[in-house]
Amino acid sequence: xxxxxxxxxxxxxxxxxxxxxxxxxxxxxxxxxxxxxxxxxxxxxxxxxxxxxxxxxxxxxxxxxxxxxxxxxxxxxxxxxxxxxxxxxxxxxxxxxxxxxxxxxxxxxxxxxxxxxxxxxxxxxxxxxxxxxxxxxxxxxxxxxxxxxxxxxxxxxxxxxxxxxxxxxxxxxxxxxxxxxxxxxxxxxxxxxxxxxxxxxxxxxxxxxxxxxxxxxxxxxxxxxxxxxxxxxxxxxxxx
Length: 240
Prior knowledge:
Layout (H helix, E strand, L loop, with lengths): L17 H17 L1 E5 L4 E4 L2 H6 L2 E5 L6 E5 L4 E7 L5 E5 L6 E3 L4 E7 L2 E4 L4 E8 L8 E6 L4 E3 L7 E6 L5 E7 L2 E8 L5 E5 L5 E3 L4 E6 L5 H5 L1 E11 L1
């Protein structure tokens, strides 16, 4: 008999030298909580993680030069693991028997949870970005642009976003948030400098790696346009 996840041997009631099994179990648990190891992914394609590493390490460092993306496949173990990607391509992390997967970019490391569902980030990884526009924008001007370096999800109605304006508009004024040309949200500034944030349908917005986010000033040529200046907005998201 052994433990259900890390396969550490149980002490049997009738065995001699129980301390040997106990000490081996302590050592295995110690290594599983603290040890780090290397996995060469130079061959590319699907690289299986050996059971000894999947069970016996808490940190797995990917090395090598596959020259393209690679899939790192864990066996059907349930645990927390930290994966650091020192290879030259994106690593897709999978777990046998589970559909969910996640990616680790070159140079990044992520804490992941392996379970029957697959692989999920173990902690919410914050990714904030925004725009600053000191000058007064014209109708329809693009006042800022961000190219996303990773997959990010923005919460419904851009919850957690903040804004500030030095010179508020003379009437309510808005900025569209677009992703690859599609309007996904809006930022409205009141005459008192209060900000209101919204997303289309009040649902979360997924933004893919490489997508271009633009902040587009209201296209209406109204007096409100002429008075806005010193705008700063920060949106709060999370890495997918």
